[in-house]
Structure formats: C-alpha cells, structure tokens
Amino acid sequence: MILPKGGKRHQKIGRVFVAGMTLTGGSALFMAQIKPNPFLFIIGVFTIYLVGTADRYIKLTQNKPLLIDWVYTLGMFVFGSIFIIWGVITLTKSDGMGAVMLVFGSIGLYSVYQDFNNYKGEAKHRNYGLLTHIGRMVGGFTATVTAVLVVNAQYIPLNIPAALYWLAPTLIFTPLSIYWIKKRK
Question: What is the pTM for the complete model shown?
C-alpha cells in the first residue's frame, strides 16, 4: 500500500499479496468447515472476493468481464444476502454480532452493485478499474487485519466488546481507502 503505484515492485509485491490472500481466504473457508466457525467463513469469503476482484479490475479496464469475474460477483451476491438475513436473525436474538454480519453483508452487496454497473459499462468514472482495485485491495488487507485481531483478541488484556474487534479495522482503513480513491478520481 505504501509503494509508488504502478511500478514493478508494486506489481510484484501485489501478485504475492493476491496469491497469499487467496491462499489465506481458502484456508479460512477450509478451517471454518473443520471446526465450524461462521465468522471465519465470512472473512474467508470476503478475502477471496476482495483480492480476487481487485486483481481482476486492473485487467478489466479494456476488457469485458470474464466468467471468473461473474463467479466472484455472483458468489458475493449470494453470501452478502445470506450475511444480511443472518444478521437480522441474529439481532432478533439480542446478539450484537448481528450488526457485524449486517455491516459485512451491506459492504458485499454494495460491491456487487458496483460490479454490475461496471460490467454493464455504466461506471461513474473513466478510471473505475484503478479506483475499484484500490478500494478492494485495501478491503482485502482490512479483512486480514480483522481476522488477526479477532483470533488474537483473547490475548489482549482489555475488556473490549467482540463487535469492536470485528469492526475497528473497517472503521480505520475505510477512510484511508476513500482518501486514496478520491486522490485518483
């Protein structure tokens, strides 16, 4: 994130980041099946979607979406919808984690909305590929920080509500992402 954009080092490290994050997201999905953990599953889905589409958007600026682009988008549509429904159900049981699911589901569905508009040629900005790439790469990084924070929360000697561990990285990195995107509009 801190290297000059577009340079060879940025591209090489970016490829390593995408490969590592895809492996991490896949591992999260696998681990969430072995030892059922719905929240780890959510992070896995988001990680794969965000870094996968971020990588693809850099290549999409001159091309039409491929099957893989639709797989990412439709997959996020399905899981984003499930996260919203699940969040509402969880909130009706007075469980604050329902808010986490609503936030992640909303972010996912908003991203799907962006994808559909971009794929139809209705992007709001000429350089939509770069702008989406930035937002989604930062989102993938945010998902990783969230996972690390949540997994290690038990070792932090503070009495912080679980939902804050889940949402703090999003609250910190989203403004940075917005700043970097606005800088390039």
Answer: 0.84
